[in-house]
What does this fold into?
Amino acid sequence: MSLVEYSAHELKQLLVSGEITSIELTQALLDQIGTYDDHLGAFLHIDAERALARAADIDHRRQAGKPLGPLAGLPVAVKDVLCDQDGPTTCASRMLQSFRPPYDATVVARLKAADAVLIGRTNMDEFAMGGSTENSAFQVTRNPWDPGRIPGGSSGGAATCVAARMAPLSIGTDTGGSIRQPAGLCGVVGMKPTYGRVSRYGLIAFASSLDQVGPLARTTRDAALLLETIAGHDPHDATSLEVPVPAYSHSLEQPLAGLRLGIVREHFAAGLDPSIEEAIRQAVEVYQSLGATIQEISLPHSKYAVATYYVIAPSEASSNLARYDGVHYGHRTDESQLQAELNARRQQLQAAGDERGLDQLDNGLVRMYRLSRAEGFGPEVKRRIMLGTYALSAGYYDAYYLKALKVRRLIRQDFDAAFGQVDLIASPVTPSVAYRLGEMVDDPLAMYLVDLYTVSANLAGLPSISLPCGFTREWLPIGLQLQAPPLEELRLLRGAHMYEQATDWHKRQPALVRQRHTGV
Ligand code: GLN
It folds into this structure.
């Protein structure tokens, strides 16, 4: 078996016992990236030299018997939205194309302190806005199960690199489903922790009341290992919770005796792909066979979740993205051209004797802001800024933003009531499997609707996980979503682990990758 095929947990054992070195492992993954990534496009940036140097350093320290961190020598890929002072952080946007962070995000700092090898930066939808990774300003990422299809998004690179065995572990972010949805569509495990569980310091903000950082991996145990490394209180993030972090990866085996699993009446409605419904119902039967009792529950306000999310998220985005004006932050338009255009326009107006026009002529600063933003942001980001600015503007604030906040509260109350009856809630991750590249780019509304099962966990601040639970006849992965009450990550991971132990969906490899190793 090639090194790239092992889980992080297995690799950790091989590294600790000295059977392999981090250099060998890092090189094997860089080779895998070299073989597949020109085609799949998961990575925006690879610094092979730095990764190998780091691996060599960890190997030396291990050989010298020095103490090492919990991820020592394990390669981890990071979504290009978390600041890392050792390289670029672009958010897949022209706006930040030349940004070099002066500090590390807390998550990145914790990975470094845990002696992980940061192997590369993964592609995403620009500023994490989207569900297909097609909104990246730089490249398309392809789904390893069918390279003609999207990998999901916005953490599409993060899911693709794990599914294609280019990294055993990766970090994503989830504002409305961006970890769980690509994990589901690429057949890997992805988890959004409770809001506040993982520090957002150094995460480039999309929607601050919804954003969370979380792990993607091929098994629940690996996701647990990565989560326990990055989670925990951080004084730099005022929303970070001051509660202890359990040793998730050591407590997975404890069975969830007497598990009460809820399924949501409203989730099995028109629009859900029958093969997904079938896979979810079978997953529920697996739980039943493991001793869980199944209870139908209702989340009556879930039908408003997408509408609520698409008011709140763009509103916060429009505010967060106001800082990119070419002066404080971000791309600045070519000023010589700007001055030339301004002078030409002034001359025109003078020649025409247009006093009013001259009065109204943009001063250079406003024009510079406008052009910098017009050039720096892509179409989806502009759409969100316009939606959000509208929803927050005088006269509309009460009707949209304030109303959305009230509905958000009702959605949270639905979950509070449901968790009075059940321990975990099971649902699909998406209503449809990965669609073809380009299929939805002209229909943003249809794309927004794909988020109907994932956005509620963000609106309510709950932890939620996506697990492989089957395939369509065309071998496209299907994801099972589990949700738990706030801060019950351990319950969620144990529930997920239980299912994983009873099934082998997570062991399947995309044909593209499998053929190379086994020839079949
Ligand atoms: N697809 C959702 C959106 O476009 C979620 C994005 C995310 O979680 N970052 O807003």
Notes: The mean pLDDT is 95. The first strand starts at residue 43 and ends at 46. Residues 128-131, 154, 174-178, 206, 313, 451 surround glutamine (CB under 6 Å). Residues 325-376 form one domain.
